[in-house]
Automatic annotation (TrEMBL):
It comes from the Bacteria. Belongs to the aldo/keto reductase family. It comes from Mobilicoccus pelagius NBRC 104925. The active site is at 55 (proton donor). The lineage of its organism: Bacteria, Bacillati, Actinomycetota, Actinomycetes, Micrococcales. Keywords: NADP, Oxidoreductase. This is Putative aldo/keto reductase. Residues 22-266 form the NADP-dependent oxidoreductase domain. The keyword Oxidoreductase applies. The keyword NADP applies. The record marks 80 as: Lowers pKa of active site Tyr.
Length: 282
């Protein structure tokens, strides 16, 4: 499968970089399994791979990068600094550790994993990310799980906003206000937990009805919704058939009526923690 994936443009210092709108997530994939999963994803056509220090699988992702025949420059690679390493100097060190595990001298996107308000170090961490971009160790830099007030503080204290805000988004948690804030400030929204697996959204009758009408799976319908609302989306799986199925999003479109039906499912219901309350690793 070689279908090309549309891209979105990210701010990257004085220039820009393109991120594929569909990527492959690796959360909860053990290091011993992630190499095969990433290789399968790359063979399927994915060109964006998302990992993080806390996932414990950067070495396995690095093995896949070395084993694939796809050139490194054709793969968009993301990793993240964990909460316990926040702070200027410790973030610089954490990046070097991640690069060593990944076996590469740069990543395409480096993210602050959580604001971790109890630690109150995300501004200094953001300054470190800007320095890492200046040094060429990250092409673009961004954040995960930041509310509008966290983003505004970065702008107020450093003069620069992230290129990406990776947040929990799915039909039960559309995050309309935050996505609007992101868009108004040239921040690309990237959606994690896109299928809301712990909430059984794929079993929702509205999603099932649209799946029947389109001849697609419920998961494909939900992932297509993410693309059509303008997000980057990063589903993950270790099953080859699911990896391939999740990539099959480019031969159909949801109608306005179908998008409206999915929009009506929003319950402001999270499967993960609220960023204002999540301080693990602080």
């Amino acid at each position: 499968m070689t279908t090309s994936v549309p891209t979105l443009t990210l701010r990257a210092g004085d220039g820009t970089v393109d991120i594929p709108q569909l990527g492959f997530g690796t959360w909860e994939i053990p290091d011993e399994d992630v190499t095969d999963a990433v290789l399968r994803a790359l063979k399927t056509g994915y060109r964006s791979i998302d990992t993080a220090a806390i996932y414990g699988n950067e070495e396995g992702v690095g093995r896949a990068l070395r084993q694939t025949e796809i050139p490194r420059e054709d793969i968009f690679l993301t990793t993240k600094v964990w909460n316990d390493r926040q702070g200027f100097d410790s973030t610089l060190e954490a990046m070097d550790e991640s690069l060593a595990k990944l076996g590469t001298d740069y990543v395409d996107l480096y993210l602050i994993h959580w604001p971790t308000p109890a630690k109150d170090a995300y501004v200094d961490t953001w300054k470190a990310l800007l320095e890492l971009r200046k040094r060429g160790k990250a092409k673009a830099v961004g954040v995960c799980n930041f509310h509008a007030q966290h983003l505004q503080r970065l702008a107020d204290e450093t003069g620069e906003l992230p290129a990406v805000n990776q947040i929990e988004v799915h039909p039960y948690l559309a995050q309309n206000e935050l996505r609007t804030f992101n868009a108004e400030h040239d921040i690309v929204t990237e959606d994690w937990s896109p299928l809301g697996a712990r909430l059984n959204i794929i079993e929702d009758p509205v999603v099932g009805s649209i799946a029947n009408a389109t001849g697609k799976t419920p998961a494909q319908v939900i992932l297509r919704w993410h693309l059509q609302i303008g997000s980057v989306v990063i589903p993950r799986s270790t099953k080859p058939t699911r990896i391939e199925s999740n990539f099959g999003l480019f031969d159909f479109e949801l109608t306005d009526a179908q998008l409206d039906s999915i929009r009506g499912l929003d319950e402001n219901k999270r499967s993960g923690p609220d960023p204002d309350e999540f301080n693990v690793g602080a």
